[in-house]
């Protein structure tokens, strides 16, 4: 993956480890696989505390056969329950992970979430590996899975296609080393790079309340370096990099690209999925922060999804059958504007761990079906203002979620984006009025319309287009692909490369 700064500083680039996400249908063994890899490949140093769940971990594996003799290489696994990161990819088409592992249970088949995962992976264009899991089971039928995949257009290497496929058992560990080797091989082919001199940027994976030390978050560094003394900004949340730890809770002085790090001391809870930037001084950070009124989540390619409300949902039921039924029924209540993100769906009572998981995302709901909630779960839920609702009839749960969706539906579409333009030059820069030259990237620029001004993903502020010029003469609008001049009313300090979002 290459970010802007990577392109700008090609000569300074150094390799970075791959970030891997495990996807697949529920119960096909994602958690078991991640647990197996974590347990067998993470060496905890003696100083490290008890492994805490921070949503990601790093392992070290031998270099691939092609690079024998090289030292070990690292792999970062996203270990996020509900795969927050990948649901972000689905929503925003952003590349968070570099490689995906698609788990399909050998005793089951290609299911809804398998297909959803395939679509998400293909949309982002990241390379992926099929892991046919539960190969230890008597009724495992890997060839049936391969056939189903090929019917979906996925041609595996063994059958003359391009997609690597490995048979594994996440339970016994069989085939897992081969899978990791394959990840390694793909990573080498991808030639992932980072600019170690850049200030770290990346995204927020999870946030939580550290009982003793305040608001903490796991960040994944995508590019650059994070050092103690820097300052982090993620939307409105900011933190000094004073307590910097790796995923094991061990203190670090600095951390580089692809590393999951835990930062403690945020002023407010940073939302998972949001981008973060880091600054070498508090002053730099403060100016940026005051400019940020709204932050766009990662790369917002899908305009339709942009205003979607997401309700994180945990489902606990008395049996696997009812879990499945509930997921299926509740999902039907989704609307164009509100969708449910199932972060966990499992049989069993509602536990403290469920409440903890729910506390990781804002506005989460826990729905129970014929189960109880432990008193610790209730306490935690109350503290984090998480709703726990328990039902004993499915349609009641359905009705309730419909109401909740209705309540959370944004009342009206306020604005319609009619175009996007890039600023090329600033001709005149007065306090409230600016004359700029630019080019229309998408749609059109129209006199009299309002604009939002962005610097990368940060919203700097708004303004109004007072006048538009094309080939030096005044005009109503300038279409896509054309250059223009414009008189803007805005207080924002504009700079070349800023983008204008024009809306009515
Ligand atoms: P997830 O929903 O995809 O995270 O699935 P889980 O990891 O929770 O696995 C669902 C069930 O399948 C659990 O009961 C696991 O113990 C079981 N399971 C996962 N992997 C294997 C495997 O390789 N072999 C067998 N026999 N069972 C497995």
Automatic annotation (TrEMBL):
GO terms for molecular function: GTP binding; GTPase activity; translation initiation factor activity. Keywords: GTP-binding, Initiation factor, Nucleotide-binding, Protein biosynthesis. One of its GO terms (cellular component) is cytoplasm. The keyword Transport does not apply. Residues 15-193 form the Tr-type G domain. Gene3D superfamilies: P-loop containing nucleotide triphosphate hydrolases, Translation factors, Translation initiation factor IF- 2, domain 3. InterPro entries: EF-G-like_DII (IPR053905), P-loop_NTPase (IPR027417), Small_GTP-bd (IPR005225), T_Tr_GTP-bd_dom (IPR000795), TF_IF2_bacterial-like (IPR000178), TIF_IF2 (IPR015760), TIF_IF2_dom3 (IPR023115), TIF_IF2_dom3_sf (IPR036925). CDD domains: IF2_eIF5B (cd01887). The keyword Mitochondrion does not apply. NCBIfam families: IF-2, small_GTP. Belongs to the TRAFAC class translation factor GTPase superfamily. Classic translation factor GTPase family. IF-2 subfamily. One of the essential components for the initiation of protein synthesis. Protects formylmethionyl-tRNA from spontaneous hydrolysis and promotes its binding to the 30S ribosomal subunits. Also involved in the hydrolysis of GTP during the formation of the 70S ribosomal complex. This is Translation initiation factor IF-2. The gene is infB.
